[in-house]
Specification:
The protein is mainly alpha-helical. About 75% of the residues lie in helices and about 0% in strands. The protein contains 9 helices and no strands. The protein is flat, with a radius of gyration of 19 Å. The relative contact order is 0.14.
Amino acid sequence: MFKPNQYPKVQTIYISLLVIVWSLYAYSRGIVMSPDSKVYSRWANVLIESNFNIFKFSGSINSEISPFFYYNFVTIAAISKVLLGEHWGLGVVILNLAAGIFAAYLLLNASWAITGKPACTIYAGLFLLLCHDYYLWIPYVLSDTLFSLISFSIFMLTISFYQRPSKYLKKSIWIMILFFL
């Protein structure tokens, strides 16, 4: 049915389909703000007022959980606010869409690399097209989609230890960096 040299075409078709379908769904749903999104928005404002100084920011937030643990996503929200103003949520949704697409790219590559069978890649693509979680979380102004990308990236790096056992140090460093994000 498919030959190995046709894999890039299959991958391009699925990635294009995912971009179109997920984008249309997110557009039809609109930007969804949850209670956590509003907290991130307030904290992003404090970060902007602190001139992106992490120490001033941490001292300005009264919370049971240290805002330091949310600093990366709050920084994304703050940069989005600086660039897009009141439409800052759109920047996060676009980032969520990009993270979902990159996770799909990694999954399709993993299914091909592990099995070498086009059917597995085709089924992985179909399951992604039907995956409710990505449809649900991409329109939200939250970090869930980014978290899934980071988790899947760590998984892919771990798999690569066994597939290509060279460069352990480099891969280990990347895993630690992703782990601490």
